């Protein structure tokens, strides 16, 4: 096989022309694969519903103090059972941005976090669900559908009593072995608002029967007045709410109906419809300008104080002349006034010419209110009769939801008439409870219920019902109310709701006596309903379509995708619809930018959650695949996968001589890849060629000019190979490529048979390589002889230590250096053949190398090798060992230094202390100022040879300066490493100046012996000398080297 080094050479040639910034990966396919294992997922939170706001207002808000439970669909999205699972409910603070804030707290300062770690386990005495009996199987929902979250240990529902604010509710699950935690939690945004209510109550008061004449509240709404001549009642009105609420001018409408002779409330005659104002008269502010607190208006108003109940007693006298007199009193909150900064109080200035600014004032004023936040408390009624009182009523009306789209399954929500909120589309059960409200429960009533369902004002269904046998856990079959039947009954109508505003109307009617068939029970006596006001209930509510939720969308095909590959593309989607938990009504379609993917559209029941398609040409490149999930109410959601598909081409070309090339390429590009140039070239140009890595010379048997249509960069190529097919009688033994720089690169040296007459050379181009650029392909003849280590070798190798720790090496070369040879220097401290030593390749013509002292340590032995090497190895190296020398050894120094003046010389003497065996000479350094070790002059030419030298004589300056001179003596070794020391002693130049002039200044101008020829006074020379000395010292300071820490023991190079 071709040596690995030759492949490296090819890569080097290819990569030389590349832009390495292009080596970034293609956009990754979002490929998570099938979830193998258990996968707990919170699919949707159903309670509380998410608050939705627009310019009109907000829907599905919560009210302060109303207890809230939490419900969600929790599903096993994996393919293995879940046997251990818990969940957590957390309430976070937020604002309109819906950003998760800190954990909210209750009124006691406790975090609003409820954790149930034992939702499912194998111990039924501890956990809510016993996994031994019923683990959460793959694809199943916890509890079979919507699950109301429970407290640990069977403590009941998790319940939150909210305070005003904006919150994010998080429900999160955790399960043992969960393979995907990204779907373990969901958030829902809710707004909690204050609520305000003016409530009233009507109550009959009757004698306690204890003989004291004390009146007590009557239990019931219908009074048996057969034994009384008058009846007392109480009307109570209160202002209630989650915050301070002081309504003004609370008007109550009171009406009395039936056979009576007199009716009063307090001192007011209420025989006819009467409006009464409740509250305490007070002088209050009724207007205030925002910009001027003094601009206020006041008036007297009846104020119903917050938390205060006003009670008024009344009396009604039945008509004694009517034996079966019947009567009714009803009261209703008609309206009231609030004071504050309301929209109705806003005042704005008008824009004028030249001043387009509009000013807004949020003033205070009174605003009339027609309703409050608890309308069920705004009306009450009581009845009385001197005879049997016949009455049936609708006690409750609402809508059950949560069924599958085909109405199978069970309901999981119920919205009662009068509650705030929306309904969802889909199968729904319009439901009502009816009950016996007459005075004699032994009397049975026949009854029917008429209903009408309207959408956006248009009736879509109507009819008559008197039972409910579908959609409830306890069916009700028609019977009488009372008598032999239960006093309560139920009716329902199952229907499919569409988006829009619905009105549901129920009208209850009592059947007359004997109106039933002849075989009806005698107890079905019937009667005349004496109170029809409670027989009609209307519920108006908005129905919205909850969009489906795509819980996962995955490409399950593994690996790189190449057009035309055998393995198809397989997409898998999972979706959930809270309006259709079974998903039977969901439809799926898949598309790319070029259009819909055929054969993949359909419903969930038709298997359309999986799309299998061949890798088509229109997918080439970055081709996002979109899945569209739609429900039966035209609700749609979509999700994308970024799919990348490589193009595939096999480009071919044949020369006139019959040599064929095949270039297989998987690449990123839409255009066709071809080889437009593949022509015969002159093979004689390649005779006696020396091939790198092989010995001897070789001749070409064929040569081809080659050029591709496009040269894709490495980042745009997934896989590629080149094959050259040639007749066997050409006798080719190897295939080579010559790049644009003239470098030869071997492609293949082992041909494979195509048939009896042809053979093929193939080169699998390494990964992360560009397309092979234009060049020459050459088929060489002759058997290749593998190259060996170099013939050339190092001779005459020597190495010496140098000043400052440097090591100098010299050598010669025996033999001839080839292009593939190189001279390698290797250096190891302490031991030879180290793995982390220094290595350098020097130029072929170099015969010396110096290893810098900055890389050595004093006293360490360095093992040196210089060898001629190639890819196969190295010839015999030159070897030496050298100890690095950077300082004078022996801890030697001069002590007791003295300076004496003798005639015109200074004699400096010292005593040698320490081991002077490494000292080659002693240098004396001096300056006109005292100096430290680090300030010692570097130029010290005065020296005495020998380690035992103790005296140096130095000639004084020619001109007396009168200055003080400071001296030191330091040792130097044979390599020139010199120590440093501070000045040790000094002497003052006290010589007498020579002022004589032998020729009296009368010499001829220009005579070289004439001191006056330069017209420079003698004293000036002393001054000039001083300046020179100062400059010398300054220069020495600048050039000095020290360690910055006093320089003790510092070596100096001389």
Topology record:
Blueprint: H1 4-15, E1 40-47, E2 52-53, E3 58-59, E4 62-63, E5 68-69, E6 71-76, E7 85-93, E8 113-121, E9 129-130, E10 141-148, E11 159-160, E12 165-175, E13 185-193, E14 196-207, E15 215-217, E16 222-224, E17 231-241, E18 248-258, E19 260-265, E20 268-269, E21 274-278, E22 280-289, E23 292-303, E24 309-318, E25 326-340, E26 346-348, E27 360-362, E28 364-369, E29 379-385, E30 392-401, E31 413-416, E32 423-424, E33 426-436, E34 447-455, E35 458-465, E36 488-497, E37 500-510, E38 536-544, E39 549-555, E40 561-562, E41 569-576, E42 587-592, E43 595-596, E44 602-603, E45 610-613, E46 621-622, E47 625-630, E48 636-641, E49 644-654, E50 660-667, E51 677-681, E52 694-695, E53 700-707, E54 717-727, E55 734-738, E56 744-748, E57 752-753, E58 758-764, E59 775-780, E60 785-786, E61 793-801, E62 807-814, E63 822-829, E64 838-842, E65 848-851, E66 861-870, E67 873-874, E68 878-883, E69 893-902, E70 905-913, E71 921-927, E72 942-945, E73 951-955, E74 964-972, E75 977-979, E76 985-988, H2 1019-1039, E77 1051-1053
Parallel strand pairs: 4-13, 8-9, 16-29, 32-38, 40-49
Antiparallel strand pairs: 1-6, 2-3, 5-11, 6-10, 7-8, 7-12, 12-13, 14-15, 14-17, 17-24, 18-21, 18-25, 19-20, 19-24, 22-23, 22-28, 25-28, 25-29, 26-27, 30-31, 30-33, 33-36, 34-35, 34-37, 37-38, 39-41, 41-45, 42-43, 42-44, 42-47, 46-49, 47-48, 49-50, 50-54, 51-53, 52-60, 53-59, 54-58, 55-56, 55-59, ...
């Amino acid at each position: 096989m071709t040596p690995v080094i030759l492949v490296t050479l090819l890569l080097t040639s290819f990569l030389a022309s590349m832009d390495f910034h292009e080596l970034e990966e293609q956009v990754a396919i979002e490929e998570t694969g099938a979830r193998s294992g258990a996968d707990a997922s919170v699919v949707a939170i159903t309670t509380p519903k998410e608050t939705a706001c627009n310019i009109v207002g907000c829907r599905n808000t919560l009210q302060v103090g109303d207890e809230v439970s939490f419900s969600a669909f929790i599903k096993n999205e994996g393919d293995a059972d879940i046997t251990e699972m818990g969940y957590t409910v957390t309430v976070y603070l937020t604002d309109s941005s819906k950003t998760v804030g800190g954990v909210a707290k209750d009124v006691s300062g406790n975090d609003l976090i409820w954790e149930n770690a034992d939702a499912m386990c194998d111990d039924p005495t501890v956990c809510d669900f016993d996994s031994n009996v019923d683990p959460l199987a793959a694809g199943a929902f916890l509890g079979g559908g919507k699950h109301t979250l429970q407290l640990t240990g069977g403590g009941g529902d998790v319940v939150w009593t909210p305070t005003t604010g904006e919150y994010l509710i998080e429900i999160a699950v955790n399960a043992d072995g969960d393979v995907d935690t990204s779907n373990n939690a969901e958030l829902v945004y809710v707004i909690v608002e204050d609520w305000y209510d003016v409530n009233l109550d009507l109550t009959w008061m009757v004698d306690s029967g204890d003989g004291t004449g004390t009146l007590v509240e009557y239990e019931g709404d219908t009074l048996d007045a057969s034994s009384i001549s008058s009846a007392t009642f109480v009307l109570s009105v209160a202002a209630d709410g989650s915050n301070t609420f002081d309504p003004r001018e609370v008007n109550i409408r009171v009406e009395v109906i039936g056979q009576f002779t007199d009716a009063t409330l307090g001192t007011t005659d209420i025989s006819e419809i009467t409006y009464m104002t409740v509250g305490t008269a007070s002088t209050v502010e009724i207007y205030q300008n925002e910009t001027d607190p003094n601009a206020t208006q006041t008036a007297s108003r009846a104020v119903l104080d917050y938390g205060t109940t006003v009670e008024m007693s009344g009396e009604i006298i039945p008509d004694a002349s009517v034996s079966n007199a019947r009567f009714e009193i009803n009261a209703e909150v008609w309206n009231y006034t609030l004071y504050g900064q309301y929209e109705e109080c806003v005042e704005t200035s008008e824009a004028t010419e030249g001043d387009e600014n509009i000013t807004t004032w949020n003033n205070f004023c009174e605003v009339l209110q027609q309703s409050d936040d608890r309308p069920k408390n705004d009306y009450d009624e009581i009845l009385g009769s001197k005879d049997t009182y016949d009455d049936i009523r609708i006690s409750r009306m609402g809508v059950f939801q949560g069924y599958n789209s085909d109405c199978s399954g069970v309901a999981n929500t119920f919205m009662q008439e009068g509650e705030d909120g929306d309904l969802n589309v889909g199968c729904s059960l319009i439901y009502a409870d009816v009950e016996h409200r007459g005075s004699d429960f032994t009397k049975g009533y026949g009854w029917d219920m008429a209903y009408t369902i309207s959408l956006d004002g248009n009736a879509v269904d109507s009819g008559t019902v008197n039972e409910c046998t579908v959609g409830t856990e306890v069916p009700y079959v028609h019977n009488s109310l009372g008598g032999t039947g239960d006093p309560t009954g139920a009716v329902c109508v199952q229907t499919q709701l569409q988006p829009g505003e619905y009105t549901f109307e129920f009208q209850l009617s009592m059947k007359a006596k004997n109106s039933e068939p002849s075989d009806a029970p005698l107890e079905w006596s019937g009667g005349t309903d004496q109170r029809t006001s409670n027989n009609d209930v209307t519920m108006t509510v908005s129905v919205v379509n909850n969009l489906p939720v795509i819980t996962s969308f995955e490409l399950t095909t593994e690996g790189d995708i190449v057009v035309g590959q055998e393995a198809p593309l397989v997409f898998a989607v999972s979706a959930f619809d809270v309006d259709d938990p079974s998903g039977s009504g969901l439809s799926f379609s898949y598309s790319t930018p070029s259009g819909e993917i055929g054969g993949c559209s359909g419903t969930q029941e038709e298997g359309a959650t999986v799309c299998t398609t061949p890798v088509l040409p229109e997918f080439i490149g970055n081709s996002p695949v979109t899945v569209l999930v739609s429900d039966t109410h035209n609700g749609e959601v979509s999700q994308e996968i970024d799919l990348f598909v490589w193009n595939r081409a096999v480009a071919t070309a044949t020369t006139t001589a019959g040599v064929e090339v095949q270039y297989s390429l998987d690449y990123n590009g839409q255009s066709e890849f071809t080889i437009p140039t593949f022509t015969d070239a002159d093979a004689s140009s390649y005779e006696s060629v020396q091939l790198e890595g092989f010995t001897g010379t070789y001749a070409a048997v064929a040569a081809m000019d080659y050029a591709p249509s496009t040269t894709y960069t490495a980042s745009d190529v997934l896989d590629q190979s080149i094959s050259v097919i040639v007749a066997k009688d050409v006798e080719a033994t190897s295939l080579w490529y010559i790049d644009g720089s003239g470098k030869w690169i071997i492609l293949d040296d082992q041909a494979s048979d195509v048939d009896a007459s042809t053979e093929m050379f193939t080169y699998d181009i390494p990964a992360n390589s560009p397309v092979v650029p234009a060049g020459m392909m050459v088929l060489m003849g002759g058997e290749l002889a593998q190259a060996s280590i170099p013939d050339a070798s190092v001779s005459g190798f020597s190495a010496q230590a140098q000043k400052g720790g440097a090591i100098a090496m010299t050598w010669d070369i025996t033999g001839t250096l080839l292009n593939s040879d190189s001279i390698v220097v290797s250096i190891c401290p302490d031991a030879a053949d180290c793995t982390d030593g220094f290595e350098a390749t020097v130029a072929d013509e170099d015969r010396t190398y110096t290893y810098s002292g900055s890389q050595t340590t004093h006293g360490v032995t360095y093992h040196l090798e210089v060898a001629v090497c190639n890819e196969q190895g190295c010839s015999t190296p030159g070897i030496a060992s050298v100890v690095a020398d950077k300082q004078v050894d022996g801890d030697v120094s001069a002590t007791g230094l003295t300076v004496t003046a003798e005639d015109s010389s200074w004699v400096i003497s010292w005593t040698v202390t320490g081991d002077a065996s490494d000292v080659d000479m002693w240098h004396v350094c001096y300056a006109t100022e005292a100096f430290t070790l680090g300030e010692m002059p570097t130029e010290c030419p005065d020296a005495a040879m020998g380690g035992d030298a103790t005296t140096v004589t130095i000639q004084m300056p020619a001109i007396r300066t009168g200055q003080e001179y400071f001296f030191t003596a330091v040792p130097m070794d044979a390599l020139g490493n010199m120590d440093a020391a501070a000045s040790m002693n000094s002497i003052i130049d006290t010589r007498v100046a020579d002022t004589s002039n032998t020729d009296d200044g009368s010499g001829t101008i220009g005579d070289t012996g004439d001191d006056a020829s330069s017209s420079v006074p003698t004293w000036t020379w002393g001054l000039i000398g001083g300046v020179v000395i100062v400059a010398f010292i300054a220069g020495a300071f600048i050039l000095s080297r020290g360690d910055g820490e006093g320089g003790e023991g510092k070596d100096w190079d001389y």
